[in-house]
Write a structure and sequence with these properties.
Blueprint: H1 2-6, E1 11-16, H2 22-34, E2 37-42, H3 57-63, E3 93-98, E4 111-113, E5 131-135, H4 147-163, E6 168-172, E7 188-189, H5 196-202, E8 207-210, H6 214-223, E9 228-231, H7 242-255, E10 258-259
Parallel strand pairs: 1-2, 2-3, 3-4, 5-6, 5-8, 6-7, 8-9, 9-10
Helix pairs in contact: 5-6
Length: about 260
């Protein structure tokens, strides 16, 4: 279908958060075959990618079974690579886009820093009432926190919002969070299929609250010091990589994100 649309020898630019999964990886071979002018860029998704995630030997061995997909179709050929699981170290990666100010471990020659989002956006508070946005994350779904700590964390967030006398509280569900972590029935649900970044860019909030979501970073860069961005419960999260926790804490502190 794609080959019919793009025609003969098109210019193709591919952007993805990872080149590890099969849904994306097979297009590397496909695009190279149909285009002499194609490039692949990485847009790391979320604060979890502040550190590298090297592929284990077991992981790389399991991927070798994907060669059998070609028995179904010769077009389906997996492109193997070494190093970081996202593909950051792969030869076919031309550039890696990151938010301005993030201290990542990617190859500096490939990094392209995006400009601060709030430079061209000026928000003005139009009402005396306070608005807050609670950002959900798949904490329990990804086993980053146990149920007891999650209940305690959710309660802590709600009590803080009540104490701050915030009249309007909104909640945005994470696409992969079926349990709606941090949600309370008193919060107003935003549409689940809505891009939260676009919504934030068009709506002002006095507070944006989450745990370690990259939305907190985005909100801080978008609103600057006009809003208070708050991270709750970092001490409760089970980080697989201790270095990642340290990096997130350092980053949040440097950006002026409040940690409670």
């Amino acid at each position: 279908m794609i080959s019919k649309v793009v025609g003969d020898n098109p210019t193709i630019h591919c952007f993805s958060a990872t080149y590890d999964n099969e849904a994306v990886n097979y297009f590397i071979y496909f695009f190279k075959k149909y285009s002499l002018n194609c490039s692949f860029s990485l847009i790391p998704d979320g604060a979890l990618n502040l550190v590298r995630h090297p592929q284990t030997l077991a992981n790389r061995l399991l991927k070798t079974f994907r060669v059998f997909r070609s028995l179904y179709s010769k077009e389906i050929r997996y492109t193997f690579y070494k190093g970081d699981r996202l593909g950051a170290d792969a030869n076919f990666i031309k550039s890696i886009y990151i938010l301005n100010g993030l201290n990542t471990e990617y190859d500096i020659k490939k990094i392209i820093e995006l400009k601060h989002f709030f430079l061209d956006t000026k928000f003005k508070k139009t009402t005396s009432s306070k608005k807050a946005l609670v950002v959900g994350q798949p904490l329990s779904g990804y086993k980053l926190i146990d149920n007891t700590d999650l209940v305690e964390l959710s309660s802590k967030v709600k009590k803080w919002l009540v104490r701050e006398k915030i009249e309007h509280i909104y909640y945005k569900t994470h696409p992969k969070d079926a349990q709606r972590n941090l949600y309370d029935e008193s919060y107003k649900l935003l549409p689940s299929n809505m891009a939260i970044e676009k919504y934030l860019a068009n709506n002002y909030f006095d507070y944006v609250i989450g745990v370690h979501s990259s939305v907190l970073i985005f909100a801080k860069q978008l609103y600057g010091n006009e809003s208070e961005i708050v991270s709750f419960g970092l001490d409760k999260i089970r980080f697989k990589n201790p270095k990642l926790k340290k990096k997130i804490l350092t980053l949040f502190c440097s950006l002026g994100i409040t940690i409670l």
